[in-house]
Design goal:
The protein is α+β, with helices and mostly antiparallel strands. It has helices at 9-61, 64-87, 91-112, 145-148, 151-157, 172-181, 193-206, 220-224, 265-270, 279-291, 349-357, 361-364, 426-434, 438-441, and strands at residues 133-137, 161-164, 186-190, 210-213, 242-252, 255-257, 260-264, 298-302, 305-308, 312-317, 339-344, 365-370, 372-377, 381-386, 389-394, 397-411. This is Putative diacylglycerol kinase.
């Protein structure tokens, strides 16, 4: 006979607190405003939200006078809602409701929080320190972090050979290959994620460990490895006191990626020569055409199904958090053996509002975890952003996962990657709050 799931007392208290706070929030609105007024105010809030989201879509998809009129509506819609609530003397109710609901969500997530990862997940491996480490450093990356943190001097003091990317265009992949031919037993990079990906592919090809030094601008790869992004020099500790992780690599054509490959709107925008000097202005100027589906229409084939006409596709080396539809957050694992696939198909303002609010995501958002995905287009080539670098690849473009392909050497002591926050599952929360635990169920009769 199956026993009830064990429930810790702290979990039970937090789950009950979540339900109590949620009930108090609802009862507060009903008690102060009454059922009829409450429904009217909720309707006003919903209409204001829909109008604001629709105006935001118009702002992104139009230029000139229409764009700025839409921008005015984006600002005015929530202000009008706030004025209506103020005239009904209910601003304080909204504030208290928000606080109670925040408390409910926070308590619920804490009650549902999973234990730290470790269920069969391999931990770091003890391996000997490298004897001939070879580090490639880009002095211009991250606004000059290599020089500011004296990374080259510190690395040389630890016995590493350092190659500075200082001068005309350098074939980074060939530099890394030559280093291995000369006897390097570790390759490392202090630079952006695009350079990290190129050298990581060479390290995986030759079976030598790879060292990430967080000297780029955003350092997404370092973030997901749990490295210190504020102090790049701390990454050098791996040379003398480090451990090894086995992680996956993404493969797009014959090129590796450590973070993601993006197609569609974003990839088209970063192709513009003006993007590097004026990111916001260039994005606003080119978004209307990109979101309208101008250019070669994309086709995404994953798990035997085809999605036609998505405006944006993101293929990542392991999936991002479930609530991160832009790939701007973090991945909690890099050894899951799957690609994360996100495709956004927005045809009108209603789709955009549903995507942002979460109620229409099933229609506009395709989410898959898979081993292989193919992106095709009407034209012979398609722009792709690979780990933040813009390239053009011939169609169709095939992306694959290479499980456990890369040995990464990291410092023994590092900030680490926090466990992912659980989704707020009210059914499971109800079981925690009011269901019987195994201790409460008592001994079960033998059968």
């Amino acid at each position: 006979m199956q026993l009830a799931d064990p429930v810790a007392p702290a979990q039970r208290r937090l789950a009950r607190l979540a339900f109590l706070a949620a009930a108090a929030a609802v009862l507060l609105v009903l008690a102060v405003a009454g059922v009829r007024a409450s429904l009217l105010l909720i309707l006003v809030a919903v209409i204001g939200t829909v109008v604001a989201l629709a105006a935001a879509w118009w702002f992104l998809t139009h230029r000139g006078v229409l764009r700025w009129l839409a921008g005015v509506v984006v600002v005015l819609a929530p202000l009008v809602v706030a004025v209506l609530f103020a005239r009904a003397n209910l601003i304080w109710v909204v504030v208290v409701f928000g606080l109670l609901w925040t408390a409910a969500v926070t308590a619920g997530r804490r009650a549902l929080a999973l234990p730290p990862p470790g269920d069969g997940e391999p931990g770091p491996a003890e391996t000997p320190a490298p004897l001939r480490p070879y580090l490639i450093m880009n002095p211009r990356s991250g606004g000059g972090k290599v020089e500011r943190h004296r990374l080259a001097e510190r690395a040389r003091a630890l016995g590493a050979q350092v190659f500075l990317l200082d001068g005309p265009a350098v074939d980074v992949a060939e530099v890394a290959r030559q280093a291995v031919r000369d006897g390097a037993d570790l390759l490392g990079v202090a630079g952006g994620d695009g350079t990290q990906a190129l050298v990581a592919g060479i390290a995986a090809e030759h079976g030598v460990p790879f060292l990430v030094i967080s000297a780029g601008t955003r350092n997404h790869f370092a973030l997901d490895l749990g490295l210190d992004r504020e102090d790049p020099a701390a990454c050098l500790d791996a040379l003398t006191d480090g451990v090894e992780l086995r992680i996956d690599l993404g493969l797009i054509g014959d090129r590796t990626f450590v973070n993601n490959a993006s197609f569609g709107a974003y990839a088209s925008i970063v192709q513009s020569p003006a993007y590097r000097d004026d990111k916001i202005g260039t994005t606003l100027d080119l978004l209307p055409r990109a979101l309208a589906g101008a250019g070669d229409r994309l086709r995404l084939t994953v798990d035997g199904a085809t999605v036609t006409g998505p405006q944006a596709v993101l293929v990542s080396n392991n999936p991002y958090a479930a609530d991160d539809i832009a790939g701007l957050g973090r991945r909690h694992r890099l050894d899951g053996g799957v690609l994360g696939v996100l495709a956004v198909t927005v045809r009108n303002a209603a789709d955009a509002a549903g995507l942002i609010s979460g109620r229409g995501r099933a229609r506009s958002l395709t989410v898959r975890n898979t081993g292989e995905v193919v992106i095709d287009a009407d034209g012979p080539a398609v722009p792709v952003g690979i780990d933040g670098e813009s390239v053009v690849l011939p169609t169709p473009v095939r992306c694959e996962i290479r499980p456990g392909a890369l040995r990464v050497r990291v410092p023994r002591n590092r900030p680490g990657v926090p466990p992912p926050p659980p989704e707020l599952d009210w059914a499971r929360l109800r079981h925690l709050a009011f269901g019987r635990s195994s201790s409460e169920a008592g001994p079960q009769p033998a059968r």
